[in-house]
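Predicting structure from sequence has reshaped protein science. With that in mind, we have picked out one protein's residues alongside their backbone shape tokens:
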Amino acid sequence: MSGNYGGGQLKAPILKTENLSERVVLWLKQAILDGEFHPGDELPSEAEMCALLGVGKSSIREALKMLQMIGVVEIRQGKRSRICSTLKPDIMMPLIFNLVLQGSSSRELYDFRIMFEQAVIEFAMDRATDEDIRKLREEIDRFRDRCEKRTATVADDSAFHWLLLDICGNSFITQIGSLLLEIFEAPMKSLESYDAEQALRDHELVLQAFCSGDKASVKEMVRTSFQVYHDVLGIRDEE
């Protein structure tokens, strides 16, 4: 394969793995660490990566989708994918890359997020004070105001979930929850249109559950609310 990217001409890597998507992730991780790619650099085309790594397009796409979810790659319709302009210091943290390299799928991550979000809401419900509920209501009012002005963003949506983590008051929950919020924000920001009104309705349902103490409704409420992630990640029900 010819062509210069980042620090120089790419060479076929020697990778000890039979998992094809993992081969792509390992190659790109090492290329970034070696300085062959820098923030903002375009990646080779799918055809070029297939030839370089000896994998099919489906493996390339699955790997890029996972790398997009952890904030390493930006997938652009009709254009070459590229390294995100800003890579956070913890992007290469062993935990998240280990999960990707083990072949974890978008479906597995999605299912874990649903399970975790349900647990967070139920845990927060047990710990919430009147002051916490007041803060939730104020956050919803702030979000509603942005929705009415049509200025609401994915970050505004996430602020409500950050508040739920704060209410839990548990450092383990906060750290895992923070990581999940960052992972899921990346694909959401790629949406051409963001349904802030639906997010607002979901937040209002959570507040109702807090006020009534109705935990029975939380599971279905979370699954319905997270349908947008199901769609944006391109998850097939047979996965």
The two ends are 34 Å apart (CA to CA).
